[in-house]
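User: Assemble these into one structure.

Assistant: Restating your components, then the assembled model:
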Amino acid sequence: MSRAMTLKASQADLSVSLWRRAIDLLATFAAGSAVVLVLLPLGAVFGYLVYKGIGSLNWAFLSQTPKPVGEAGGGMANAIAGSALILGIASVIGVPVGIGAGVYLAEYGRNRLGDLIRFTADVLNGVPSIVIGIVAYGIVVLRQRHFSALAGGVALAIMMIPTITRATEEMVLLVPTAVREAAYGLGVSRWRTTISITLRTAMSGVITGVMLAFARVAGETAPLLFTAFGNTYWNWNMNQPTAALPLQIFVYAISPFDEWHRQAWAGALVLIVLIVVSVSAVRLVAGRGMLKGSS
Amino acid sequence: MANRAVGAHPLTSPELAVGPALAAQPPAKPEFLIKDSTSQWADRTFQFAMLACGLTVLLLVYLIIYELTTKGTLARHAFGWRFFFQSDWDPVNDRYGALSFVYGTIVSSLLALLIAVPLAIGVAVFITEMSPRWLRTPLAFTTELLAAIPSVIYGLWAIFVLVPLLRQSVQPWLARYLGWTGLVEGPPYGIGMLAAGVILAIMIVPIISSIAREVMTAVPQQQREAVLALGATRWEMIRMGVLGNARAGIWGGIILGLGRALGETMAVTMVIGNRPEIAKSLFAPGYTMASVIANEFSEASGELYLSSLVEVGLALFLVTIVVNVLAQLLVWSVTRGTPARSHV
Amino acid sequence: MGVDIQVEHLNAWFGKTRAVQDITLKMSANHATAIIGPSGCGKSTFVRCINRMHETVPEARVSGQIRIGDLNVYNGTSATQVRRRIGMVFQKPNPFPTMSIYDNVAAGLKLNGFRDRRQLDEIVERSLTMAALWHEVKDALRKQSGASLSGGQQQRLCIARALAVEPQVLLMDEPCSALDPISTSKIEELIFQLKQRYTIVIVTHNMQQASRVAEYTGFFLLGNLIEFDKTEKIFTNPSDKRTEDYITGRFG
């Protein structure tokens, strides 16, 4: 009697555990499929970029300015140069300010003001890029009375600053107090310690942050629409409207011309190679550990 | 106390004499290699410079608010709150209402969440709990690579790959089986709300999944072991031990993804159709707050027109701020004070 | 040459907690003075007051007077100037991780604006020799990172780094607590030699170490200096009951 009951119970156990195992398997399968479903578009995007881009990528594309509608050939050289100009301006403004703010937060920011700046930086990080465009339009374009590379650079700089700030803070805080104290103990002044010891120790991490910020804004289009605005010729004057690679891709992509579509793909390939190379380089550097060898 | 302790015992050696009278110093005047510069001045200057950089961050947000509120004044005075509840957008007659943009923004973002959330959580669960160890870093890196692709490239890809795919296969299929709901009916243009939702979903998956991974990794190992010790299967362990504990943080990630979707501009602009209409069907074209600014800002001729666009921008700014702050708080509640890293 | 250290009515706080209470004592030139006591007794804080490292901690405060030779530490000089006269060696070896061995030793001078290369080379060699590290590292001075050395070597590197700025006083805050016995005995030997040129203050929780290297010993308890005397006397015939209890291992 009692033996029969135990048998029944264990059978019930077995069926429950089978059911539970099935669910477990199903969950594993579902999660695995999610990974596949996410990697699919990634593969598709890169695949098409290479497939469509390579064919249109040639020397003319990299060395010439756009041809008028209807004429074949031409390229995006001026847009690549324009992007370089705009990103250069953005970096010149954004990198020092971002690093400075990060240093402030890490070294002097253990107070209310620091908390406020930290919070504000996070808020700024979430502001849509198109809104940043409006602001850059307001503070630069309206003053200059025309679109300019400078306005585009300011817009991108505003987007770089919070990312660099928070990355710098994080990295500087990772530098052990002992290292700082060693410098103080030698009679090195605080500012000198911060620059030559703390920042130098955190340097590879800070560079990672800067490169990530750079990669993030390098593909930005929205804030350039009404700041840098774009053009179709060479321009090195930062007070003039300037073409940018993402802008040109956008304009060509929504145009009705096949030739321009081809060029949009080529431009996109150039842009993504630029970004992926910088991000991967950063991963490699960061992967080696920022405080390599420190005890 | 210390004095008493010392003073209580006569000291044997004269070198140890302790008291107000200092022993005569040998007149040694050592030469130092380093001359002291007044470093305090330099320290102050440096601290001040760093503070100035920090204050720049505050100044920037102040500038954003200032620019948006002052330049939007005209529209605010002309339309008041009605601005957000009217859908006629008519530059010719200078009448502006943002309802259709608000609608398009919300619907496209929610649609994106609907698609992205299960995928993102699935990816996070797989990477942190199921995948073999050697596969974790490459998988995490690859999925995060999705976040590094610029919006405009997503847009380009969507126009030439996603939209035709939707038009030729997905939309007819959806219309056949789900047409009765009224949500997926009408001519399959390809371009429209559905395309915007799908492309947004692809863009926000890495954001949600990386935050989800972060908070799931933050769940202490003991929590997992505790559940496993009760005889749970792996999935039960994940559901109870991991997802249960990381719930608030995952919500934070979802809301962060929402914030990104709300403000996303280029990809959406390129595929949503850009028509200020409110349609029930997801096949119909729409318009979002970000795209109307992108398309019309540089061409807006009238002052009221421009001001209305800025007002749309202000609304977008405020909504994303609220959403981001909420997300930040939720993520912090799990990872405890370590702020969410900025994601590319 | 070393100089006397005269401490008068020294108090140190962390916020509202007083970690060091009204200490008065004199540590004599060219001798080693050991500071012993159970952990948390304020001995580290005490030595960190001598070179004004204490004030780098937020909310830390100090009152009282300290004189290093003719230099009044808390009156009329800057913290950086004080620290240049006082070398400090920390509990855990803390070489600058991004710098070579050479740069580590030269750091104190270079970062303070000292540029003469020839003299730098001499000082680096001299400091490393004094720290008994020269022969082990002379072939990899610029190639090898300071952080790549073994723990004991790192600590000697830190000592060389401290000696390079030519201080008068050497503060050592439990310099051997992170080291193995062999490295420890090397450092102790080193301290014995350095005594001839510097005034040494060494914090230690190891009583044998105190008796091996120091002529004088101060016993700290709960922020108070309980007893200060010749090392021999402290360890063989302490005057205070609490010292005796600690020495004989009854607490701490």
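The first strand of chain C starts at residue 5 and ends at 14.
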